[in-house]
From TrEMBL, chain B:
<dbReference type="InterPro" id="IPR033948">
    <property type="entry name" value="ETF_beta_N"/>
</dbReference>
<comment type="function">
    <text>May play a role in a redox process involved in nitrogen fixation.</text>
</comment>
<dbReference type="InterPro" id="IPR012255">
    <property type="entry name" value="ETF_b"/>
</dbReference>
<dbReference type="InterPro" id="IPR014730">
    <property type="entry name" value="ETF_a/b_N"/>
</dbReference>
<dbReference type="InterPro" id="IPR000049">
    <property type="entry name" value="ET-Flavoprotein_bsu_CS"/>
</dbReference>
<keyword id="KW-0249">Electron transport</keyword>
<keyword id="KW-0813">Transport</keyword>
<dbReference type="InterPro" id="IPR014729">
    <property type="entry name" value="Rossmann-like_a/b/a_fold"/>
</dbReference>
<comment type="similarity">
    <text>Belongs to the ETF beta-subunit/FixA family.</text>
</comment>
<protein>
    <recommendedName>
        <fullName>Protein FixA</fullName>
    </recommendedName>
</protein>
<feature type="domain" description="Electron transfer flavoprotein alpha/beta-subunit N-terminal">
    <location>
        <begin position="22"/>
        <end position="218"/>
    </location>
</feature>
<dbReference type="Pfam" id="PF01012">
    <property type="entry name" value="ETF"/>
</dbReference>
<dbReference type="GO" id="GO:0009055">
    <property type="term" value="F:electron transfer activity"/>
</dbReference>
<comment type="subunit">
    <text>FixA and FixB form a heterodimer.</text>
</comment>
Length: 350, 276
């Protein structure tokens, strides 16, 4: 097996992020990735490139500006009517061409439905390595290659994967795993316009319709500042109300462990963890959750974790910052009541 | 109609344990199952077979013991099964895996043209979701991932209409056969096989293929054909300290008060968010 880069592949330079925009809306994972790309590019001493694909439109300029503010040095806008809605065929065709033309050494995408669909296709046309669902990215000092770390077997182990003899090196990263970078409106960058001239009739798949989810339907869990989560320790569906009550006084979102969503105590879009959402709130209150690894990977990036569990040896106390050993059925209402009182005092004071 | 369903045999991850000293995965005694996501695709394929006739071939690449998963799939109603097994395939990453599977699908296609390939949305062990798109790209098939519902199939015009989950909504896509589809979990539920299917599953000989049967370029499979290199496997670092316990005499309300005091003094910025 060869691990050395050929001379031709050594010419690949720069760290790219494919900016996901659908109908003018940018998926925040793209900004999170620009923050990561900035760190990698600074270590390598190269530029950060952002690629924006879509139909020509006024919002493209705005998105280019945002990409620069979040860390890009150069923005490639790839614009064509055939790229208006995401479809695998035209997107992978133009991305393959753009990569072959500009030769970036690293290409990052969000592990979203768009990112996973596109990454799997272009890694195959480019015949290169693709590491899925990474939680950590770094540059290996020995060979300047991307060291992409991802959980395996549900997070019980981690592995670091490298693509040594092929370029570009590709990776997808889950939303909310990386920190949102500071927006810097004073940054400047170049815009390179690419006009692919696609003939719509060569593309077989057509988008007949798009049915948006209603906003209320999707819990805004991933972006909540405060989350109160309940687990199987609450014992029955009715007791989950105690979680909702505390969330209400705190203006928080409600989360849950998998057994609770499976039992139908709460809807499945509120599940936190490996097969649910990754969250990173300022405060995560976990009540009656044991802290299994599949739950942990979804919430351990929270700034502060406060766990309530009746078992002093529950694994959640291994990664929570603060713990209360006690009965969640009593402590949750006590917290709700006392927060309510403090809020009243606070209101009167102001 | 000829449908190929790719299934992978995986360890039942709920029961995986890590050896406390060597940090390696202890697979002994862990039951192997069909990747749960693949069952949604298999069921959808069987429904199309019920409607249009034809056959469903299940295909897996794996060790000889993966035969059990193929027989299980036949007991649900799959027509026949191919086990692609060869020492040379060991260590394949997703690029090499999609190459090997595509080689087998091409051979099946020569026997009888393939209209649809189904893959699972992802597996529960490798969990990359990359093999399906790899196969579609190599076969030059239309790629339809995260399909929540197949609305319509028209065998005369060879058109297919599906609902595809995307960020923030559902796309309704009109496409054409041949296509590669991955089904979303929960889109259907696996049937119980009939008695006939169970007998057939036990008796029908499998097609046992190896690299010589269908793979043109040996350098594209196994470790050699894999651009990714696993450079390190390790246990997540435990957090340096355990949780600081909040203790107070006087039951739940005293504990709650102590917790709130702690939050407000330790994280003054958070206090604003909490009582805003
Ligand atoms: C492939 C796979 C994917 C998975 N994905 C996820 C995922 O995304 N998210 C997820 O959460 N799980 C997931 N799981 C499940 C996970 O392994 C655990 O089973 C689950 O997280 C446990 O939920 P729990 O802590 O609520 O319940 P339990 O493990 O039953 O724990 C209940 C806890 O409550 C405590 N308790 C009991 N009574 C009280 C009380 N009165 N007051 C306070 N505490 C009390 C107990 O001490 C215990 O610690 C997955 C599993 C697999 C195999
Ligand atoms: C812990 C771990 C991490 C890994 N990380 C990576 C990585 O980041 N990048 C990488 O390139 N490789 C990776 N690999 C290797 C990869 O898992 C293998 O190539 C594997 O054969 C297929 O990938 P998958 O399990 O992720 O399948 P997915 O791509 O998640 O599978 C999707 C579907 O493809 C079909 N399919 C997949 N494998 C088979 C098969 N053997 N036979 C029949 N159908 C199949 C099934 O329908 C399946 O539902 C990893 C392996 C492990 C064990």
């Amino acid at each position: 097996r060869k691990f050395e880069l050929s001379e031709e592949l050594k010419a690949y330079k720069g760290v790219w992020v494919i900016v996901e925009q659908e109908r003018g809306k940018v998926h925040t994972v793209s900004y999170e990735l620009l923050g990561e790309a900035r760190k990698l590019a600074d270590k390598l001493g190269v530029e950060v490139g952002a690629v924006i694909l879509g139909a020509p439109g006024p919002f493209i300029n705005e998105i280019s500006g945002e990409a620069i503010a979040y860390g890009a040095d150069v923005v490639y806008t790839v614009l064509d009517a055939a790229l208006a809605e995401y479809r695998t065929e035209p997107y992978s065709k133009v991305m393959t061409d753009v990569v072959n033309t500009f030769k970036p050494e690293i290409v990052l995408l969000g592990a979203s439905t768009l990112g996973r669909d596109l990454a799997g296709a272009i890694a195959t046309t480019l015949l290169t390595g693709l590491t899925a669902d990474c939680t950590e990215l770094d540059i290996s000092p020995e060979n300047r290659s991307l060291a992409a770390t991802r959980p395996t077997f549900g997070g019980t182990l981690l592995c670091t994967i490298q693509t040594l003899a092929y370029r570009p090196q590709m990776a997808t990263i889950r939303p909310r795993v990386m920190q949102m970078p500071e927006r810097d409106g004073t940054r400047t960058g170049r815009v390179v316009e690419v006009t692919p001239n696609l003939a719509e009739d060569i593309f077989v798949t057509k988008v007949l319709d798009f049915i948006p989810d209603s906003d209320q339907e999707e819990a805004q869990l991933a972006f909540a500042d405060i989350i109160v989560s309940g687990g199987k320790g609450l014992q029955k569906a009715e007791n989950f109300k105690l979680v909702w009550d505390l969330a209400e006084v705190l203006g928080a979102e409600v989360g849950a462990s998998r057994p609770c969503t499976q039992a139908g105590w709460v809807t499945s879009d509120r599940q936190v963890g490996q097969t649910g959402k990754t969250v990173r709130p300022k405060l995560y209150i976990a009540a009656g959750i044991s802290g299994a690894i599949q739950h942990r990977v979804g919430c351990e990036n929270s700034d502060v974790i406060l766990a309530i569990n009746s078992d002093p040896n529950a694994p959640i106390f291994d990664f929570a910052h603060h713990g209360i050993v006690g009965d969640a059925l009593q402590i949750l209402p006590a917290l709700t009541e006392q927060f309510r009182q403090r809020r009243l005092v606070n209101r009167k004071a102001s | 109609m000829h449908i190929v369903v790719c299934i992978k045999q995986v360890p039942d991850s709920a029961q995986i344990r890590i050896h406390p000293v060597t940090n390696t995965i202890m697979r002994q005694g862990v039951p192997a199952i069909i990747n749960p996501y693949d069952l949604f695709s298999l069921e959808e394929a069987l429904r199309l077979k019920d409607r249009f006739g034809g056959r469903v071939t299940v295909l897996t690449m794996g060790p000889p013991m993966a035969e059990a998963s193929l027989r299980k799939a036949m007991s649900f109603g799959a027509t026949d099964a191919v086990l692609l097994t060869d020492r040379k395939f060991a260590g394949s990453d997703t690029l090499a895996t999609s190459y090997a599977l595509t080689s087998a699908i091409r051979k099946l296609h020569e026997e009888e043209p393939v209209d649809l390939v189904f893959c699972g949305k992802q597996t529960i062990d490798g969990d990359t979701a990359q093999v399906g798109p790899g196969i579609a790209t190599r076969m030059n098939m239309q790629q339809l991932t995260y399909v929540a519902k197949i609305e319509d199939v028209n065998l005369d015009s060879r058109e297919i209409t599906v609902q595809r989950r995307s960020e923030g909504g559902v796309q309704v896509l009109k496409s054409r056969l041949p296509a590669m589809i991955t089904m979303l979990e929960g889109s259907n539920s696996m049937r119980f096989g009939t008695m006939d299917d169970m007998f057939r599953a036990a008796r029908t000989p499998l097609k046992l293929w190896n690299k010589d049967t269908c793979v043109d370029d040996e350098a594209k499979v196994g470790l050699k054909g894999s651009p990714t290199v696993v450079s390190k496997v390790f246990v997540p670092k435990p957090r340096a300290e355990k949780a600081k316990m909040i203790e107070a005499e006087g039951g739940a309300s005293a504990q709650a008060a102590a917790a709130i005091d702690m939050l407000f003094t330790t994280y003054p910025k958070l206090a604003n968010d909490l009582v805003r």
